């Protein structure tokens, strides 16, 4: 449930704004507010990312690993910048995998800073999308 927190928050806010606008006679604004909030909810939901795998599965896949969490604007920026090549990496949600969260803390000096990308023996916290694309191109 924790990973859907932001999606549910945005959707709930959209419903509240839409109800308020509708009650005050502005049905057009209510529809726009609801649509905008639902779209934001989808963007910050796990649906905006490739299917998440466990850290153990990602380690065995032999592909670059992107540790992320829902609601992270930097993870979303990386996901958008990678476009179609994002599926070439293994995406691991640190909120659903304690082993992944521990791996990120080991890399990021005890912090759960995401996105953290591991490619081979190299790990980077909040890397430039260009670097990640280069790592994906090497596979």
- End-to-end span in angstroms? 34 Å
- The count of β-strands is 4
Q: Which class of secondary structure composition applies to the elements? A: alpha+beta
- Going by CATH, the homologous superfamily of the largest domain would be Glutaredoxin
Explain what the structure shows.
The protein has 139 residues and is an alpha+beta fold. The chain folds into 2 domains: 2-46; 50-137, Glutaredoxin (3-Layer(aba) Sandwich). Helices cover 52% and strands 12% of the residues. It is built from 6 helices and 4 strands. The protein has helices at residues 5-23, 27-43, 55-61, 73-82, 98-107, 129-137, and strands at residues 65-68, 90-93, 116-119, 122-125. It has a 4-stranded mixed beta sheet, with helices on one face. A hairpin with a 2-residue loop joins strand 3 and strand 4 (122-125). The model has no long low-confidence stretch (mean pLDDT 89).
Please summarize what this structure is:
The chain is an alpha+beta fold and 139 residues long. It has helices at residues 5-23, 27-43, 55-61, 73-82, 98-107, 129-137, and strands spanning 65-68, 90-93, 116-119, 122-125.
Topology:
Layout: H1 5-23, H2 27-43, H3 55-61, E1 65-68, H4 73-82, E2 90-93, H5 98-107, E3 116-119, E4 122-125, H6 129-137
Parallel strand pairs: 1-2
Antiparallel strand pairs: 1-3, 3-4
Helix pairs in contact: 1-2
What distinguishing features does this structure have?
elongated; single chain; 4 strands; alpha+beta; 6 helices; 139 residues; Glutaredoxin; 4-stranded mixed beta sheet
């Amino acid at each position: 449930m924790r990973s859907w927190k932001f999606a549910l928050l945005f959707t709930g806010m959209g419903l509240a704004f839409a109800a308020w606008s509708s009650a005050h006679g502005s049905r057009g604004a209510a529809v726009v507010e609801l649509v905008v909030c639902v779209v934001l909810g989808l963007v910050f939901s796990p649906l905006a990312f490739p299917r998440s795998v466990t850290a153990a599965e990602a380690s065995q896949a032999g592909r670059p690993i992107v540790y992320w969490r829902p609601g992270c604007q930097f993870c979303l920026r990386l996901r958008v910048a990678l476009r179609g090549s994002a599926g070439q990496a293994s995406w691991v949600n640190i909120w659903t995998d304690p082993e992944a969260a521990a791996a990120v803390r080991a890399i990021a000096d005890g912090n759960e800073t995401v996105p953290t990308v591991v490619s081979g023996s190299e790990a980077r916290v909040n890397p430039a999308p260009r670097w990640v694309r280069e790592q994906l191109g090497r596979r």
